[in-house]
Amino acid sequence: MYSSNKLCEAADLFGPELVKVQCETPSHIQFRDVTLSLTDLGTIDITTKGKILWDLYEHNFQFELVTLGHMLVPNLWSSQQLDRLNQVHQIFPGNSELTMYDEPFPRKNEGLGSHEPQTKLEFMERLHALVASWPGFLLDLGQPLLPSALVTCVWAVEKKVVLFYVQSFFDYFGHPPIIPRHIPNNACTIYGWTTA
User: Fold this and answer.
1) For the stretch 162-186, what's the b/e string if a residue is b when 16 or more beta carbons lie within 10 angstroms of its beta carbon?
2) Would you place residue 31 in the very low, low, confident or very high pLDDT band (cuts 50, 70, 90)?
3) Residue 186 lies in a domain
4) Which residue from 13, 56, 106, 143 lies 20 to 30 Å from 32 (Cα-Cα)?
5) Is residue 9 part of a domain?
6) Is residue 17 part of a domain?
7) Which residues contact 109 (CB under 8 A, 6 or more apart)?
């Protein structure tokens, strides 16, 4: 009974696709546009490992953001579930549905991770709008940034919003959140791995 309730709660929170569990052991694993054989898992190259880690960070950040939002402002989720989830989807580029998908691995940092100030501003404003309803939101972050905002201003607001998110997550769950990373150009240098 307990586990079936948890499974139903997970389906409500993340969608039924996430909780579909196969009883049989699969022979292959689909990672974005790459299919990996279970027999080859021990020999995955370092670049693919870096991409897998990046993807895990990205999806876990999305799931944690939804979960924290559910916990901090449950009234916004109970009455407007789809509207709130759509607001979360807008924070991420592409066809983000908070589930794994088979789109190709991105070739450049997009959305919150973009190196382009105007692109980053657009997605940062969406995150800003989402967390503005959370308890303890900083009053000095109340005004949205203008499209003509300077790079330093975008960075300053990003820093405050991220620190607010990290602190809110820590206060509620007692450990730091997983936050997104930039796409690994060279997994060896990013993760400190050495090749054999």
Assistant:
1) bebbeebbeeeeeeebbbbbebbee
2) confident
3) yes
4) 13
5) no
6) no
7) 115, 182, 183
Residue pLDDT, tens place only, 134-163: 999 987 776 777 777 777 888 888 888 999
Cα 151 to Cα 131, 139, 140, 156, 167: the distances in Å are 21, 21, 18, 9, 24
Q: Is the CB of residue 25 less than 8 Å from the CB of residue 46? A: no
Confidence of residue 4 (pLDDT cuts 50, 70, 90): low
Confidence (pTM): 0.74
Evaluate whether residue 30 is within a structural domain.
Answer: no
- The identity of residue 174, as a single letter, is G
Token pair, residue 186, equals 């060279």
d(CA 63, CA 96): 12
Q: How far is residue 27 CA from its own chain's centroid?
A: 28
Q: For position 142, what pLDDT does the model report?
A: 64
Tell me the residue range of the domain where 158 lies: 45-191
C-alpha separations of 128 from 28, 39, 44, 102, 171 in Å = 39, 44, 38, 29, 19
